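To close the chapter, one final illustration. This time we ask the reader to focus less on the individual chains and more on the assembly as a whole: which components sit near each other, and how the overall shape emerges from the parts.
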Amino acid sequence: MKRKVAWGKVYLGLVFVILYAPILYLMIFSFSSGKTMERYHGFSFQHYADLFADSRMITIVINTVLVAVLASLIATIVGTLGALAIKESRGAWRNSLLSLNNVLMVSPDVIIGASFLIFFTVLGIRLGFISVLLSHIAFSIPIVVLMVLPKINELSPTLVDAAYDLGATRWQALSRVILPAISPGIIAGYFMALTYSLDDFAVTFFVTGNGFSTLSVEIYSRARQGVNLEINALSTLMFLVSLALVIGYYFVSKHAGRRQRVVAVKEGDAQ
Amino acid sequence: MRQKALFIVPYALWIVLFVIAPLALIFYQSFFDLNSHFTLANYQDYLTSATYLKMTLNSVWYAALITVVTLVISYPTAYVLTQLENRQFWLLIVILPTWINLLLKTYAFIGLFSRTGSVNQFLQFMGLGSHQLLFTDASFMFVAAYIEIPFMVLPIFNALIEINPSLLNASKDLGATSWQTFRRIVLPLSMPGVKAGIQAVFIPSLSLFMITRLIGGNRVITLGTAIEEHFLTTQNWGMGSTIGVVLILAMFIVMFITGDSREKGGRH
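The assembled structure is written out below.
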């Protein structure tokens, strides 16, 4: 029995090595003074200096972050309202709303990209910042709904009824009772939307046009020209940002979990 | 009551504009040729052209291979993970790479697999000689599987930890060997997770187009690559949309076969 577990651990270790080796490999070579990912040429921050001096890359980083922050903010608002609307709907209507919500979750990225490209062309929207922003909002909304909806379903109706009994208006019930109670879901939705947006390549590639670029699209076009250690430097920084996001998400959801329990206790008191 | 109506307005607008309209448009566009004439020629071309049919079969074949490779690697991984003490933490370690930009992970392999790259240096060190690794089918499948592993591990892991331990104890009490317990109890009960994983891996594998370019060197043309080329290179949106409709159909078939599994475990 012990032997089996040990073999299992060896296997798992191997999988971890495969999963992380390419990422570590990128990061190690970002500190090499050479020009290729073949031989390590001694420690240097040269590629980081190049990266920060590359004004095109800096602009693209700012664009990417701007799109991600704006798109996930708007998607979080629309998605939360959508989840509230789904909660209030009934029967067949509710099922069709849920199915429509999931269409963009299961559709392959190329289909989303191609169909949005036709859509923007038909509407005469110029490809660029606006089309990318609208696309990112569009594909982030269903994720927010899926993160918020379970929290709304968990919310006890007696809590909302109590608010009304105590004379709360609809707006007060929403802002003082419902939204605080479902805030863990909303925050989780925002984080997920943010990472979807930062990560997206395929959809953006279709709707980006010529003048505007995001990081993924830029990395793609540079990678097609071959290895460039500036990308390695960028990937190290992006890995650190992803790690910070994961840790932030972990603590936010942990903290939110505690608040959720407080709500649960209060609910018990009411009964 | 009026406020209730206001709630749904932005969300309903999103459904109409960004879910229904684009899908309707891609379907509509598939009936137009290069000169914007209404025609069924795209479908006729697709169904009679050996090139298109072969490409579709090839794409399905490679997606199936990628799914099998991913499953073979992921199932034992998920199984071992469930046996560990801090399994949620180790699961997080498996999931963490999905938070890293897809393009960067692919880019890493360009360096690793290059003619004089680290993998070849290692092969030479082992006395196996250097090989052309980049732009081969094997490297394409390896990188695709590498990217999909977490999306397969997650649903299988979730299915495995849901199995009631008393069932396993009962099986042992009744004299089953651990292999019998695995084959008769664990494997059947984890099938919903396997199906969800297949769904989460197979459909994206059909539509990959970035990895086929950067790693596969365009040797494998997937449905996704074909759509991308028709839309962005040859500007034949009608044919591109027709292939898109085929891809959507393929997606429905896969979802039908793998049953109504839980929501997709990952993102792409």
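Chain A touches chain B through 80 residues (CB under 8 Å). Chain A has eleven helices and no strands. With these observations in hand, you are ready for the problems at the end of the chapter.
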